[in-house]
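Run log // design_07
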């Protein structure tokens, strides 16, 4: 009997279950989108119960489309939108508030309060992160302070916190009836509460934030058996054996296992990870230091990360808010109606600017407008914004590592856009390489789970699965590349200081 691995990919806009075979090829996919909730400007929420309902639905869809049952599934892996924060009652399984999404900036006052003693880098040496609303720690604090009775319930041990991996795992393993409350090192490294070197919650950090330790999940490696799916699940008794935050999962799925290897994922946001091996490397250029993965009892592997908040969600904004396109893939067709951006630039600082600036006082801007500009130019400017932001992050990686990347592995939904990929190669001046299986986030979670149960035997076997699908070579003159980039950098400065 052929066996498979199921990956649950709990993302920012949808939840998917993907069935993979031993060659790392996709057998089937189930996918359901969930609602994006915007209660106020800068606030972004999800309904955790909707996410859990969708998780069960997509598992059923994927199994049905693959025409398999739980008996043919060797293991389950989970990957997830990182930093998105859920707090729920351990007895009822009900969230005390909506999930506060990684893009949400409501916690800036909490950040300012914590930064008053030591500045935004107060905890960077321990956590690898600046104080910023992006990370989960301040989101937990907001819920404890703003939801009536939450702090008292948390201190009494009645409330649990988790990023969405922990929420899905807890429910999948039984919820109030014995659910496993665990996260992995990659997700824990995005909370501002874990020490990068000990790989455990740090009491000094918990005290500074005022977060009760009893709320927090146990931190485990990225590849081990955490528990089994509960009896009511279609996958009952199947081991859940891998957890990786989505960007770390994509890095793993790209087989970027060694120091100096990197990938860039183009999704709702854009995230470049550069493997630094067993070394915790601090950035002098606005990057984050994070855990890339840990396999069982082996030492952790670390990475530098450049996080960009808005890329694919800018295309969604063109579709949903402006009505310029009816579906996301149409943006390429519209952008191809013009030969260039016509001098227009869109800087999508909807939630402030992430790497390398970390300017939460920034807001989005469209600059360089003239009567000449058409919706085609705006579509092109939206795509180019993703490529320009990636160039900024890659420049920072090159400066921190001292080893310039000679090619960039790419994945995620936007890599289907060939105009964007060619412009990305042009503006970087290096080849851009897309693998055959572009769904590397789910694949990485599948790999982590499969390794834990012996479905795959080694990292070398996973490397052998990787295959190049398409490569874009740079075709733009160096002078033109630098002219466009200089104009972009000028446009970025126009967004600074908008708030506060």
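design_07 sequence
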């Amino acid at each position: 009997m052929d066996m498979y691995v199921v990956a649950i990919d709990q993302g920012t806009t949808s939840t998917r279950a993907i069935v993979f075979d031993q060659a790392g090829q996709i057998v089937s996919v189930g996918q359901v989108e969930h609602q994006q909730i915007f209660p106020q400007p800068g606030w972004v929420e999800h309904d955790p119960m909707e996410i859990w309902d969708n998780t069960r639905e997509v598992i059923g869809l994927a199994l049905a489309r693959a025409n398999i049952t739980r008996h043919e599934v060797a293991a389950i892996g989970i990957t997830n939108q990182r930093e998105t924060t859920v707090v729920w009652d351990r007895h009822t399984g009900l969230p005390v508030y909506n999930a506060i999404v990684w893009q949400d900036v409501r916690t800036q006052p909490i950040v300012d309060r914590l930064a008053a003693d030591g500045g935004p880098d107060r905890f960077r040496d321990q956590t690898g992160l600046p104080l910023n609303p992006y990370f989960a720690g301040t989101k937990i604090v907001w819920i404890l302070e703003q939801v009536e009775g939450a702090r008292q319930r948390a201190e009494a041990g009645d409330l649990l916190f988790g990023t969405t991996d922990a929420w899905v795992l807890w429910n999948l393993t039984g919820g109030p009836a014995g659910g496993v409350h665990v996260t992995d090192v990659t997700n824990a490294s995005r909370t501002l509460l874990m020490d990068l070197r000990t790989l455990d919650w740090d009491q000094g950090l918990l005290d500074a934030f005022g977060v009760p330790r009893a709320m927090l999940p146990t931190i485990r490696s990225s590849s081990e058996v955490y528990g089994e799916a509960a009896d009511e699940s279609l996958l009952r008794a199947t081991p859940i054996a891998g957890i990786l935050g989505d960007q770390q999962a994509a890095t793993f799925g790209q087989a970027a296992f060694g120091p100096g290897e990197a990938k860039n994922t183009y999704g709702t946001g854009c995230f470049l990870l550069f493997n630094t091996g067993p070394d915790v490397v601090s950035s002098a250029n606005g990057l984050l230091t994070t855990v890339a993965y840990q396999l069982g009892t082996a030492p952790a592997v670390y990475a530098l990360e450049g996080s960009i908040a808005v890329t694919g969600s800018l295309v969604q904004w063109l579709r949903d808010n402006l009505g310029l396109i009816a579906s996301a893939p149409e943006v390429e067709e519209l952008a191809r109606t013009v030969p260039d951006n016509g001098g227009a630039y869109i800087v999508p600082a909807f939630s402030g600017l992430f790497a390398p600036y970390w300017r939460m006082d920034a807001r989005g801007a469209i600059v360089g407008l003239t009567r000449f500009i058409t919706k085609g130019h705006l579509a092109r400017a939206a795509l180019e914004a993703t490529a320009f932001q990636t160039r900024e992050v890659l420049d920072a990686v090159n400066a921190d590592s001292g080893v310039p990347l000679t090619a960039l592995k790419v994945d995620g939904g936007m890599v289907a856009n060939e105009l964007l990929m060619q412009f990305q190669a042009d503006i970087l001046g290096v080849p851009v390489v897309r693998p055959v299986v572009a769904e590397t986030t789910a694949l990485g979670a599948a790999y982590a789970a499969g390794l834990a149960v012996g479905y795959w035997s080694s990292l070398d076997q996973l490397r052998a699965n990787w295959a190049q699908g398409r490569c874009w070579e740079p075709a733009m003159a160096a002078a033109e590349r630098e002219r466009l980039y200089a104009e972009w950098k000028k446009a970025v400065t126009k967004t600074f200081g908008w708030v506060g």
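The chain is about 35% helix and 25% strand.
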